[in-house]
Amino acid sequence: MEDQRKLFNLIKPEDIGIHLTDGSMMEPEASVTAIVFSHPEARYFNVLKN
User: Fold this and answer.
1) What are the protein's GO molecular function terms (predicted)?
2) What count of other Cβ atoms lies within 10 Å of the Cβ of residue 12?
3) pTM of the full predicted structure?
């Protein structure tokens, strides 16, 4: 979670009202961060419940 601060320095989420607490938790609580990479052979898929 301490790496959140590094990520926040890159993307500046304060501009849209997201900030970190002293304990590196995001507020508002429903906020989510992710680092997503693509791959040339990646495919979309669906998980169906029958």
Assistant:
1) methionine synthase activity
2) 9
3) 0.60
Alpha helices in 2-43 (DSSP H): 4-11
Residues 2-18 have pLDDT tens digits of 788 888 888 889 999 99
Report the distance separating Cα 18 and Cα 12, nearest Å: 9
- What's the CA gap between 46 and 8, in Å, rounded? 32
Local structure of residue 24 (DSSP, 8 states)? S
What token pair was written down for 45? Answer: 């898929």
Q: Label residue 32 exposed, middle or buried (CB < 10 Å: 0-12, 13-18, 19+).
A: exposed
Q: Where in the chain does DSSP place strands (E)?
A: 19-20, 26-27
Q: Which residue has the tokens 């590094």?
A: 6
